[in-house]
Amino acid sequence: MNIPFLDNWLRRHGADKEETDLAAAENDPERAAAIAELLSECELLRVRAGQLGLELDDSPASLTALDQLPPRWRDDPEELPWLGNDAGLYLGTVIVRTVPGASWHIWPGGHPVVRLASGREIGVVEAGLDWAVNGVPELSQVYAEAAEA
């Protein structure tokens, strides 16, 4: 999923048009932290989980808890893609914060992925959308695969 506001934010904060990948952020920890913070907001998901009694604490256990929630969000087709996007960003946040060497990378056009230390990239937004719509793959399963890589 394209996140245009992120692309605009990157340009305003010193990135060239061609430099929307976080390559420059590897040399600028402050910039990388700001982007990671922005991607970790996931406000809709956090609100909906909170309404069901689940506080998201950016831990792998919270991914398992999300997988166990009844999928009531499927009742609202307008909210479904937004919730799926947030689920993917939340998954990426947990991976980046807990898997050594994992980091956010933004491709041209504003598409965020998580790059593991091995160089493998995980399309977390796509995984979140699949989870929201179909229930699979489970977020905890994607995390487990990333942690093993």
Extended strand count: 3
In sequence order, what are the helices and strands, one letter per element? HHHHHEEEHH
Helix content: 40-55%
Q: Which residues form runs of ≥5 with pLDDT under 50?
A: 15-22
Characterize the main sheet.
3 strands, antiparallel
Strand content: 5-15%
Molecular structure report:
It is built from seven helices and three strands. A hairpin with a 5-residue loop joins strand 2 and strand 3 (121-122). It is mainly alpha-helical. The protein has helices spanning 4-12, 29-39, 43-51, 60-68, 80-98, 124-134, 139-148; strands at residues 103-107, 111-115, 121-122. Helix content is 52%, strand content 8%. The chain has a three-stranded antiparallel beta sheet with strand order 1-2-3. The chain is globular.
Layout of strands and helices, then pairs:
Layout: H1 4-12, H2 29-39, H3 43-51, H4 60-68, H5 80-98, E1 103-107, E2 111-115, E3 121-122, H6 124-134, H7 139-148
Antiparallel strand pairs: 1-2, 2-3
Short description:
The protein is mainly alpha-helical and 149 residues long.
What key phrases describe this protein's structure?
149 residues, mainly alpha, 7 helices, 3 strands, globular
